[in-house]
Amino acid sequence: MLVEVERAKGAEPFNPDRFELPIGMLFGLANDGLVDKKGRPFPLQAAVIAREFADVIVFTQPPPAFQRVALGL
């Protein structure tokens, strides 16, 4: 798989290598069988990943407003 990462127009500069870390973590969780039937991490693990890597990756589900409230807790 080949992925090209670039900064969105108007976005702050970021380290593209940082994008690689959550992808590796998600693959690792899948390899360890720590995902649901659809290959998604369980909610608590997904929340930790989403919060830590919010600067480089955005989950589209659940809706962003719900994520902000849930991750704020």
Could you list some keywords that capture this structure?
73 residues, mainly alpha, 0% strand, globular
Contiguous runs where pLDDT drops below 50 for at least 5 residues: none
Q: Please report the distance between the alpha carbons of the first and last residues.
A: 35 Å
Q: Count of helices?
A: 3
Radius of gyration: 13 Å
Percentage beta strand: under 5%
**Shape category:** globular
List the SSEs and their pairings.
Elements: H1 17-31, H2 43-52, H3 64-72
Polypeptide structure, described:
The protein is an all-alpha fold. It has one domain. The protein is 47% helix and 0% strand. The protein has 3 helices and no strands. The longest helix has 15 residues.
Question: In short, what is this structure?
Answer:
The chain has 73 residues and is an all-alpha fold. Helix content is 47%, strand content 0%.
